[in-house]
Design a protein that fits this description.
Rhomboid-like fold, 6 strands, mainly alpha, two-stranded antiparallel sheet
């Protein structure tokens, strides 16, 4: 997957320079103000954090204490976007953008803010504020739009209501892991995990949720977000990039198959042994005449090891 991890680097370098020159980003702090718990607080990440906190707290008060259903209409319900939900014939188009900003669980709200600071802040520092703005809101809209389109053919999906930013956060983790595959983050502040491994962890957690819940529909935005984010960051959504990536994968698979086949052939040929390249033909003839005093070593590695010998 490293083929496309630098897709945005050249494109965003000028944007980063403009942001830093205008004082929006501080290169000494990774692109933003250093926040608590290792978070990187950048301009758009700060706005997203504040918006999510305000919408969630006000929405929770209105829903739990005042009995208002208005906060629920900020979530994404595909049939409401068509104009066929609780709101009647009015298409709830605003839901395509508002669903990530409402969370009705305090632990979920804290986790979302932390995830924005850990992953979103780093991405904004690397890409620049303009690029990150386009990525975040483009991802939000595309995921919602594809979910609504799928719901046209999936009745169970049409009635789902999606609240919270976790589909976007899962996609953001994938983008972060593919952009920084070798960077190490301490999961739960303890376990060191590489960026590329966070991609698989994010996909694995979503898969486990699907298995334990017995339903796919509640996690469609998560799947769409991760796939779209991976395609965007690696550049495989472009025709030539996709072709090159498939060709690379094909060549690597072929090389691996040939290596495995060679290992199997060598393993089955018990009469083959590794010969020291410094051994002369006379020494080999003497060894054959005098017998192998080393017994089983004839089929093992020479004094320089298998890596330095040749098959005879």
């Amino acid at each position: 997957m490293r083929l496309g991890t630098s897709v945005f680097r050249d494109e965003t370098r000028f944007s980063n320079q403009l942001d830093r020159a205008s004082g929006k980003l501080n290169p000494m702090q990774g692109g933003g103000g250093a926040g608590p718990l290792g978070m990187t607080i950048t301009p758009w990440v700060k706005r997203i954090m504040v918006t999510t906190a305000v919408f969630s707290i006000v929405g929770a008060i209105a829903y739990a204490w005042m009995g208002s259903s208005i906060p629920l209409h900020l979530g994404l319900t595909p049939q409401s976007v068509w104009g066929g939900g609780d709101l009647g014939p009015v298409p709830a188009l605003w839901q395509l953008l508002t669903y990530p900003f409402v969370i009705f669980h305090p632990i979920g709200l804290l986790l979302a803010i932390l995830m924005f600071g850990w992953f979103g802040g780093t991405l904004e520092s690397w890409w620049g504020s303009v690029r990150f703005f386009k990525y975040f809101f483009g991802l939000t809209t595309v995921v919602a739009g594809l979910t609504v389109l799928l719901a046209l053919f999936w009745p169970n999906l049409a009635a789902q209501t999606f609240l919270g930013p976790f589909p976007i956060i899962a996609a953001m983790i994938v983008a972060w892991g593919l952009t920084f595959p070798d960077r190490v983050i301490r999961l739960f502040f303890v376990l060191p995990v590489k960026g590329i491994h966070m991609v698989w962890i994010s996909a694995g957690i979503t898969t486990l949720y699907i298995i334990f819940s017995g339903a796919v529909a509640p996690f469609v935005p998560h799947i769409l977000g991760m796939v779209f984010s991976a395609a965007l960051v690696t550049g495989v959504w472009r025709g030539r990039k996709l072709w090159l990536y498939l060709q690379k994968w094909k060549i690597q698979s072929q090389i691996k198959r040939e290596q495995d086949a060679r290992k199997r052939r060598v393993g089955k040929a018990g009469h083959l042994r590794v010969v020291d390249p410094d051994e002369s033909p006379e020494d080999e003839e003497t060894r054959r005449d005098g017998g192998d005093d080393d017994g089983g070593k004839g089929n093992g590695a020479g004094k320089n090891g298998a890596g330095n010998g040749w098959l005879h």
